[in-house]
Amino acid sequence: MSDSFDKYFLSMSNLYFGNPLFKAKLFEYFNFDIEKTFNANKEDLKGVFEFYEGEITIPRDFLKKRDEISPDKIYEDFLSKAEKFNIKYITYEDEKYPQMLKNIPDFPLMLYYKGNFDGINFNRTTAFVGSRKASMNAKEALHGIISGLKGSDIVIVSGLAEGIDARSHKSALENGLKTIGVIGSGFEFTYPSSNKKLYLEIENGGGLIFSEYPYETPPMAYQFPLRNRIVVGMSYGTVVAEARIKSGAMISARLTLDFNRELMCMPGLISNPNTEGIYHLLKNGASMVTNADDILEALGWELETVGREELYLEGIEKEIYGAVAIEAQNIEVLSQKLNIKTGDLMANLTSMELKGLIKQAGGNYFISG
Question: What's the pLDDT score for residue 333?
Fold first, then answer.
């Protein structure tokens, strides 16, 4: 990192105006010269407004807030936090900056991150979004879809929220896929706190966590829709799994179309209020996704996997695997369905779990691994 220009990127990240479009357009206006962008004066701002013919709004307090910032101090403060909390950053000029993200109108000028770029293929990124209060059926169906990508270089991108986001990241990690989480706060905060373990798993080898906010920025409601544009912006397509008509997931769906990316939806129970947005999107042209192949077809990708083994099962193990392959099953239901005593069933379930064929899906439910 060099403080000659990076201090201006860091300083711009400390200027909050609600709508990130202004900073992106200002940067474009100065031909991506970050020093000129930061040091824009009143006449420059007038020229920017006229050049974009009113497309953007110039924040009234830009000059006031900018003049209160010392780039050298901002840079020094960051270095102290970076060393203590293991935070790094990439700027728009960095070769690691996601190319797809540069193509959206309100791209972030820089991103803070934890984790590492090893194994991250930004040419094979897919976003997964959906309800924070997702049903078990949706979570398990989503897990099955992501499991179908096992052994590939496809990268799962989501927002590290509860529900569908968390399930997407966890399924990626469980299947050896890299994953990218984008958060709506600075790294001082783990939000929601229930995802603390997930944060650490991603940071310690599972992929990357991105934020456009300085370390001490708290999570605020308006920042999460802004976070969505980064999740969708760095992805070639978006899979929506459970979404009410008015929800953050529907904002992501609209952004996907605005950015001219592929919009895909996972169907669910029509009696579930969280599928209302899904069927609205499907009726209006979104691709339907029920398995991994549907994603590959929609995005025009081929899947080359390594180390996938065929399953050769016999007897009761074959029956159990067939019963849990599509959706999670309760032990009592399995016992009745397969006409096997609970004790014998538990012995087989334990054996299959140790082999990695199945896994617990919460409580007394099991699903294919």
Answer: 86
Model confidence pLDDT, tens digit, residues 78-122? 999 998 999 999 999 999 999 999 999 999 999 999 999 999 999
pLDDT at 213: 96
Q: 115 pairs with which residues across the strands? A: 208
Residue 16 burial (CB count, 10 A): 15
> Taking every pair of C-alpha atoms in the chain, what is the biggest distance, in angstroms?
81
Identify whether the C-beta of residue 159 lies closer than 8 Å to the C-beta of residue 199: no
pLDDT at position 250: 95
pLDDT at 361: 76
Phi-psi region of 344 (alpha: psi -120 to 50; beta: other; left: phi over 0): alpha
Q: State residue 279's pLDDT score.
A: 95
Predicted pLDDT at 349:
85
Q: Shortest CA distance to 261 belongs to which of 102, 126, 110?
A: 126
Number of other residues whose CB lies within 10 A of the CB of residue 343: 8
SS3 218: coil
List the chain residues with pLDDT less than 70.
1-3, 304-313, 326, 369
DSSP output for 21-60: HHHHHHHHHTTT-HHHHHT--HHHHHHHHHHTTTSS---T
Are 137 and 283 spatial neighbours (Cβ–Cβ below 8 Å)? no
Query: Which spans in the chain are helix H?
Result: 3-13, 21-29, 34-38, 42-51, 62-67, 71-85, 136-147, 164-174, 196-201, 223-233, 248-258, 276-283, 292-299, 315-324, 331-338, 342-354
- Sequence-distant (≥ 6) Cβ neighbours of residue 179 within 8 angstroms: 155, 156, 157, 158, 168, 169, 172, 173, 202, 206, 207
Contact 209, 176 (CB under 8 A): no
Q: Say what the pLDDT of residue 312 is.
A: 56
Q: Angle at CA 102, nearest 5°, toward 145 and 52?
A: 130
